[in-house]
Amino acid sequence: MLKTAIREDRYLNIELNARLTGKVTPDDQRMVRELVLGITERRLYLEYVLEKNLHQPFKKSRLAVRVLLLMGAYQILFMPWVPEYAAIFETVSLAKKHAKTSRASSMINAVLRRVLESRDELLDLSQANFQEKALFWGFPEWIANLWRKQYDEQTALSLMEVMGQQRGVSIRSNQLAGSISSLHKDLVTAGYEVAPLSYSSSGMRIERASELSESEAYRKGRFSIQDESAMLVGDLIDLPDRGCILDLCAAPGGKSFHLAEKYPNCEIVSNDIFEKKIERMEEEAKRLGINNCSFTVRDAGKLQEDWIENFDVCLVDAPCSALGLIGRKPEIKRLRKPEDLDEIIEIQRGILKQAVRYLKRGGILVYATCTLNRKENENQVAWLLEESDLILQEIGKPIPVSRISLEQNSGMITLMPHLDGTNGFFIAVLRKEPI
What we know:
Layout (H helix, E strand, L loop, with lengths): L1 H7 L4 H8 L5 H28 L9 H16 L5 H15 L3 H16 L1 H5 L6 H7 L4 H10 L2 H10 L6 E5 L6 H10 L4 E3 L6 E4 L9 H4 L3 E3 L2 H9 L7 E4 L6 H9 L4 E6 L2 H14 L4 E5 L13 E7 L14 H4 L4 H19 E11 L8 H10 L2 E3 L19 E4 L1 H4 L4 E8 L3
Parallel strand pairs: 5-6, 5-8, 6-7, 8-9
Antiparallel strand pairs: 1-3, 1-4, 2-3, 9-12, 10-12, 11-12
């Protein structure tokens, strides 16, 4: 699997779940996840370390050799519970089997022993500067500099340091399938370690979440797996008992389903441009017992005449650079490129422009992204305020104001992983002025 990840730079969580769930023991699952996600997270630094100890460029080595070197170096540097001799011995044994030549296994043995000899120095950040710390945490220079410029140096360092430490999972209770207290009790009885969320009362955190999607409670549709930051979108939307909600970029569906469960008498239109994703959402709706969602496959950037001024709420969880998700998806560090950002901003504006037209007078537009980039967040809202007759709405409940991180003005909040324990996330709430 590491071979695939390194060769193709793919998103890993879905593939990990597909390959591991129900097929290996929980202990082996944890080991494989730690290796795959940890190496992906620290890959830039591991390659830098290995490059210094090789006689040829790291990328010129055979793929099997590169994978083994990364595995061995990661265990030596970042898995202190693995004995040193075991990390080297097991990697060399695998080299004899997979690298096929005694020269390769000898080289791997020598390189890993040199990494071990300099381990204390490699892990010591006491004299490191900003760029060296960014490299140590596996961040490309452009993301580190973006955060330093848009926030400040200490915030950027804190973000990069904490994003590799997020391992728990949050779940949202399905209000249609029983109370949250009952779900809590049943999960504890099933052996899960459960803790409350920081802001949302809609769910809970599961500290050790292996095989969670195979639990009886999950099969019965009693919860969805969703980050707390995303739950806050549903928590913030306040409607009368009846109304019509459009979720323009709905996949994978968590926010649509949250609203459907919260407002069973409302009509939810869940739209996405990808048909396959909508098919998976339809299956998920059945698991959750939701019957007030309808599903459409349309381009959110193009005007849909039959939606004009039809909705009380329009939710735009826009396509974005996803920099706030790096803690959960470390491969974003490598997959996302700085040149992507301008194109993303134009796509977001195209969708927002149409979303405004779908709102009834007095209706609410909720704009959300899972990124930490002012150009996609605050600047987009500023642009929208100039281009439309929307006004920002105050955000208070249900989020304790004293714990909102970094900034809160009348209608925008930014959740920061190092302060809030969530993914990096942005939410803005705006209202279309009544005539």
